[in-house]
Design a protein that fits this description.
This protein is α/β, with parallel strands linked by helices. 32% of the residues lie in helices and 23% in strands. The chain is built from 7 helices and 16 strands.
Length: 342
C-alpha cells in the first residue's frame, strides 16, 4: 500500500517525501533519472536569505525555512546516517560605497526587527584572509545563511527515506495521493497546456575548487557565491542563462565566474578546479515556488519552481505540502499558488 507518491526526486520531491514519511505515511518516490539528477545535483548549496526589508510572504516563508533547516537536516542525517553537509556558518559580503554602507545600516535595523533576534545582519571591519577586499573597509555578515552540499543532501534524504521504509524508484505506478515535483519538465508541460510560458529552465554553471575552508562562512562578492563545503572543497557559482544550446555544457561563462571568484577572494587565486557543472533550474513566471493543487491533474498536487532558493525553501515547502496532502490543511501563501504563474 502507498499513501503518497512523489513524481520527481529533486530537492522539493525528496524533502516532501521525507516530511510525509516522518508522519508515518507510506511513501513512494519515482524518478526515471534517479535522485538529484537535475538542478538538485549541483555544486553550490548556498542557503542565503533575501535582504531584510520590504517584508512579504515570500521573505517570511524563506526566513521560517532557514530557521527550520538546522533541525530538518539534523533529523535527515540521523535517520539515514549520511551527512548532507549542512552548517549554519553565515555569509560575508563586501560593502561597495557610502550609499551601500548607509543601506546596510538600515537593513541591520530591519533585521533586528524582522528576524526576531534569531539571526543577525551586521556590519564589521573587513579583515583576515577569508574576507573579500571591500572599498569601504566594511563587510556585511549575516548569521542566518547556511550551506549544504546539494548532491550529498539528496543522498542523505534518500538514505533517510529508505531507512523509514519508503521506496525510491526509477519506475513505478503512482498510487495514493500524487505530488508532481518534476522541475523543468513539469513547467514545460504546464506551458504547453496553457499555450504560454508558465515557467522555464534557466541554465546555471558552477565549479568546485580544491580549497579547504570547511569551517568558514560563505562569501558573496564579485557577483558570485563562494561556498566552502564539509568535504574540504569550495564551490563557486553561478550563471543565470535564459538562452543556451546545451543545458549541461560548461563554457567561457563559467570561466568568467571562476575568474570573478578569484578576483573577489585572493585566497582562491591558485586553487585548482576539480569539477565544472551545468544544469537547468526550474523558474516559474512569478519567480516564487509553485505549490498546491496541480492545474492539470485533478486531485493531485504540485511542488515546483525552486529557482536559486530551492534548498533554502525545502524544509518549509516539505512541511506545508505534507500538511496539505496528509491532513488537508492549506498554509500555502497566496503568491506561491499555481495561479500566480498561470
Amino acid at each position: 500500500m502507498t499513501d503518497i507518491t512523489v513524481m520527481g526526486a529533486g530537492i522539493f520531491g525528496l524533502a516532501t517525501a521525507w516530511a510525509c514519511a516522518r508522519r508515518e505515511a507510506r511513501v513512494r518516490v519515482i524518478d526515471p533519472a534517479g535522485p538529484g539528477a537535475g538542478a538538485s545535483g549541483g555544486l553550490v548549496g548556498a542557503l542565503a536569505p533575501h535582504v531584510p526589508e520590504t517584508w512579504n510572504d515570500k521573505k517570511a516563508f524563506q526566513f521560517e525555512s532557514l530557521i527550520m533547516a538546522e533541525g530538518f537536516w539534523a533529523g535527515v542525517a540521523e535517520a539515514g546516517a549520511v551527512s548532507p553537509g549542512y552548517a549554519r556558518l553565515g555569509r560575508v559580503q563586501p560593502v561597495a560605497d557610502d550609499a551601500a554602507l548607509a543601506l546596510a545600516h538600515e537593513r541591520a535595523a530591519s533585521a533586528a526587527r524582522l528576524w526576531q533576534g534569531r539571526a543577525l545582519w551586521q556590519l564589521e571591519a573587513a579583515t583576515g584572509g577569508w574576507c573579500p577586499p571591500s572599498p569601504t573597509g566594511y563587510v556585511i555578515r549575516d548569521t542566518l545563511s547556511a550551506r549544504l552540499h546539494p548532491r550529498r543532501a539528496c543522498a542523505a534524504l534518500v538514505a533517510a527515506l529508505r531507512g523509514a521504509g519508503a521506496e525510491v524508484l526509477r519506475e513505478g505506478v503512482p498510487k495514493g495521493r500524487v505530488l508532481w515535483a518534476t522541475g523543468v519538465a513539469g513547467l514545460e508541460e504546464l506551458s504547453a497546456a496553457r499555450g504560454r510560458t508558465v515557467g522555464n529552465g534557466v541554465k546555471g554553471q558552477a565549479a568546485l575548487l580544491d580549497f579547504d575552508a570547511r569551517d568558514l562562512p560563505q562569501i558573496f562578492a564579485g557577483g558570485v557565491h563562494i561556498v566552502p563545503h564539509e568535504d574540504g572543497t569550495t564551490a563557486i557559482g553561478s550563471t543565470s542563462e535564459r538562452d543556451y544550446a546545451d543545458p549541461t555544457a560548461t563554457d567561457a561563462q563559467l570561466d568568467a565566474v571562476i575568474a570573478a571568484a578569484r578576483a573577489a577572494l585572493p585566497a582562491l587565486a591558485e586553487a585548482p578546479v576539480i569539477e565544472r557543472w551545468a544544469g537547468l533550474r526550474p523558474r516559474t513566471r512569478s519567480r516564487a515556488p509553485m505549490l498546491g493543487a496541480h492545474p492539470l491533474h485533478p486531485g493531485q498536487f504540485i511542488a515546483n519552481g525552486g529557482f536559486k532558493i530551492g534548498f533554502g525553501m525545502a524544509p518549509k515547502v516539505a512541511e506545508v505540502m505534507a500538511d496539505l496532502m496528509l491532513d488537508g490543511v492549506d498554509r500555502i501563501p497566496e503568491g506561491f499558488r499555481p495561479e500566480a504563474s498561470l
